[in-house]
Design a protein that fits this description.
About 0% of the residues lie in helices and about 55% in strands. It has about 210 residues and is mostly beta strands. The protein folds into 2 domains: about 5-100, Sandwich (Immunoglobulin-like), CATH 2.60.40; about 110-205, Immunoglobulin-like (Sandwich). Strand 16 and strand 17 form a beta hairpin.
Amino acid sequence: VTPKFLYYRGVKIGDEKSKILTVRNEGAGVLSINSTKIFGMNPYQFDIIAGGGSFDLNPGDSHDITVRFKPMSKGMKYAILLINSNDADENPYLVMMSGRGLAAIETAVFQNSPNPFNPETWISYQLSFDADVTIKIYNTQGDIVRILRLGYKKAGLYLDKQTAAYWNGRDEEGEKVASGVYFYTLQACPNEDGVGEFSKTRKMVILK
């Protein structure tokens, strides 16, 4: 049986990943697989979607079993695939399986806080992919007041004052901007050609 261990790495909750296990008869007689089943710590997060059940293999023949990992919660998940057969040396045959459930997040930019504000505010956001992140701040005439170049950021959460984007209420020249309504657009670009770019605009208010 190859491979001897199925490791699915990280899979987001709600997503799934499948791997193929190959059973090959290297003996001189017919190999009869009587059953295949999954048990262990997290058996319901792994399932056989093709090739399971009972089957016979002539010498030299092989058979594929497809096992899917579909995590329902975060963290490491473990299970065992048990193969019952007429093999006198290895029966039952056990295949260890594991995978990690990852929290599913979408790229988003949130309302700045505080809002209204004077003179500073923080803009929190989250990324579902690694990206170069920029926030452009506009006045009501559509003129760019300030560009916050946050640089290349890893996928993850940027929600608190230590990680969120910070604006001190000043323009590109370092001057304090007037009270009023402003707009900010977060752009997250995962690659140089702009494919898959995220862009979202929100409104904020400076009140002095």
